[in-house]
Design goal:
The structure holds 2 protein chains of 2 kinds.
Chain A (H helix, E strand, L loop, with lengths): L5 E5 L9 H5 L5 E7 L5 E5 L9 H5 L5 E6 L13
Antiparallel strand pairs in A: 1-4, 2-3
Chain B lengths: L1 E3 L2 E3 L6 E5 L17 H15 L6 E5 L7 H4 L3 E4 L5 H11 L4 E7 H7 L1 H10 L4 E6 L2 E2 L5 E2 L18 H4 L5 H6 L4 E8 L3 H19 L5 E7 L3 H4 L3 H15 L3 E4 L10
Parallel strand pairs in B: 4-5, 4-6, 6-7, 7-11, 10-11
Antiparallel strand pairs in B: 1-2, 8-9, 10-12
Classes of the chains: A alpha+beta, B alpha/beta.
């Protein structure tokens, strides 16, 4: 399995199930759970491993409970420019 | 890698960078706002801007009366509660006594455009060096969804069950355009928080206004944020955002109404 370039962690116990992040996800990778959390809300979760770490869900989330991780950029070693 | 209803468990998280997290200036208290409310996003955005500019120690916020009355529970900075509609007057007092502090007021449409119209107009007229945030959702959310001065024609609220009628209830008050005409205002803009891009733009406007105040700029920076009220409008959060885009933005057009003046070097 290829590793996706991003990942999110949602504090599901604080989610109020407003679905704004689900609409906002450009990859359509999020879904509303059929389970409920301690407050009785259906919570959003990352259903498919296609996250790119674009932070759209975290920006729109009213509760600010989404943490976004993104793959470290691979460092390209710069070759010294040979003097002509 | 395991998929469950609690989300995907990622076992290579240590290979990744944390790119977005709740700002430290925004407390861990569970917000009392209804699901999908724009207030929570705006509360967070102003705290994000304050943290990014490293001015937590010298920022003072003034909380309003209305849905956002508990703003001081969520903002981990110095806060002051003001009487209904008088947040801009209280902010004036704070800024005049402590001119080196960054002061902002946070008000809704019932607070700033109804009961506090006189204070708002005169604060801008005096050209106070504060940031005023105006959250316009066209309804009195906390008291049960009554019609506010900024409610648009045909909107059904608990005090206008047949929709707002201009002959009977008057016209919507566009206070942002009134303020843009006054010489005391420095920067007047209208933004929204209905999508991720709109959130980015709103944050940019807040950063700009706070920086202007830090650099010793003169005049009120006024940011109107056209927001939603899913409970008051009797809609789901996603429906309310679509309603914003399809109906409300036609009347309240987004964008800068008054551009920020360029500071001369001797003013800084």
């Amino acid at each position: 399995m290829t590793k996706s370039s991003g990942h999110i962690i949602i504090n599901i116990q604080k989610c109020k199930g407003c679905e704004l992040c689900i609409i906002e996800c450009p990859q359509n990778g999020m879904a509303l759970s059929s389970n409920i959390n301690q407050n009785g809300y259906h919570y959003a979760y990352l259903a498919e491993d296609i996250c790119t770490g674009c932070t759209n869900c975290a920006l729109i989330c009213p509760e600010a409970i989404i943490k976004v991780y993104r793959k470290k950029k691979s460092k390209i070693l710069k070759q010294p420019v040979s003097t002509l | 890698m395991s998929i469950s209803q609690e989300g995907i468990h990622c076992n290579y998280l240590n290979e990744m960078d944390l790119v977005w997290d709740r700002p430290d200036t925004f407390t861990d208290t569970t917000l009392h706002y209804c699901p999908g409310c724009g207030h929570s996003v705006i509360n967070r955005l102003i705290m994000e801007s304050v943290q990014e500019l490293n001015i937590e120690e010298k920022t003072i916020g003034v909380a309003p009366v209305g849905c956002s009355v508990f703003a001081y529970h969520y903002m981990f900075i110095d806060m002051q509660e003001a009487a209904h509609g008088r947040a801009s007057a209280v902010a004036t007092g704070i800024k005049r006594i402590l001119p080196d502090r960054i002061v902002f007021s946070y008000q809704g449409d019932g607070d700033l455009a109804a009961i506090g119209t006189a204070e708002t107009i005169h604060t801008v007229n005096r050209g106070e060096n504060i940031l005023m945030l105006f959250i316009n959702n066209g309804i009195y959310g906390m008291t049960g969804g009554q019609m506010s001065p900024t409610t648009l024609k045909g909107s059904i609220t608990s005090t206008s069950p047949d929709g707002r009628d201009y002959n009977q209830h008057g016209y919507p008050l566009d206070i942002t355009k009134i303020i843009a005409q006054m010489p005391g205002s420095a920067y007047v803009t209208r933004q929204s928080v209905d999508s991720a891009n709109a959130v980015r733009k709103t944050k940019k406007a807040m950063m700009k206004s706070l920086k202007y105040q830090m650099d010793g700029g003169r005049g009120v920076c006024f940011i109107e944020i056209v927001s939603n009220c899913p409970s008051g409008w009797k809609m789901t959060p996603t429906e309310s955002n679509e309603w914003l885009r399809n109906e409300i933005f036609n009347h309240y057009e987004l964008g800068d109404i008054k551009q920020l003046p360029k500071l001369k070097t001797n003013e800084i």
